[in-house]
What does this fold into?
Amino acid sequence: MDVLLAIWEVLDLPIVIFLLLNFFLVTASLLVYAERKVSAFIQERSGPNRVGPAGLFQSFADVFKLMFKENIVPAQGNPFIHSLAPVLMVVIAMSTGALIPWAKTPAGDALAVADIGVGLLVVLAMTSVTVYGVTLAGWSSNSKYSLLGGLRSSAQMISYELAMGAAAISVVLYSGSLSLFDIVESQDHLGSFLGWNLFRNPVGFVVFSVCALAETNRAPFDLPEAEQELVGGYHTEYSGMKFGMFFLAEYVNLWIASLLITVLFLGGYLMPGQALLVEYVGLGGVALTLIGITMTLLKTMFIAFCFIWIRWTLPRFKYNQLMNLGWKYMLPIGIANILVIAALVAGWQLIVGS
It folds into this structure.
């Protein structure tokens, strides 16, 4: 037994990382399937229905197909950076998921690969680094369409990162901590969902959600890859698995954005009435951890479904509309929201202190 414990202490982190990577691979495939089915429902058609039951394995068949596609590198491009860009996108997207808590362990700790005190700050920093992958992809392709897509992505992410940061600061004012685990715990008020930041900070929720859509380049904010204007945007000159890696990163980022909204505004792993179950039913330990994981998955899937529905419902913004929304509306509203919440928190502390 001592030998097994010693082996586990050495291998626990690699095993968890391996499981997390495989989880993101499967999740991205299922999100692609969900997107196809939702778009088919909206457009009154069947969608994937050939590979597997109800077309469930269509995404895996597409991956298998991409593995045998020819890998094309532009003759006048930069081969090294051209290959580095999609890898950078995928690595950053998957690394971000290691910092987000899925549940509370029986020992009372966060169920996450790494629970650090400034988790929110690190997550926002890592998500903003994805702009380098897009920009490098556009520049290294030696194509005007690709370069314009990369430049659009840079401008778009910079424009909406500020407003997203303002929405995140409003959450930190309530929780008093940059730890994602502490932020979830601060939303636990007698087991009621009214303690979630969705209800305490609805303006921050709207601002953060809109900015998350823009940060992930999802419609109606998909200007960097607008087919009608830029052919395929920054991945016009990509093929094979490199092309597939960009889509893998896109759907992993979609899941991470949904997961982050769940943690910051929807109570994370908390379930309405959880405190009552713990107090009167005696629920705890592993059962409570499993419930937390289930709640996190359900909430995240709901947000991801909303993002998919928005993509197939709203038309794409024009570029000037995109910039106006970010700088003239989202950022001022986010800053005003910080001031209002700071005043409320300070006033409450004065009342309680007196």
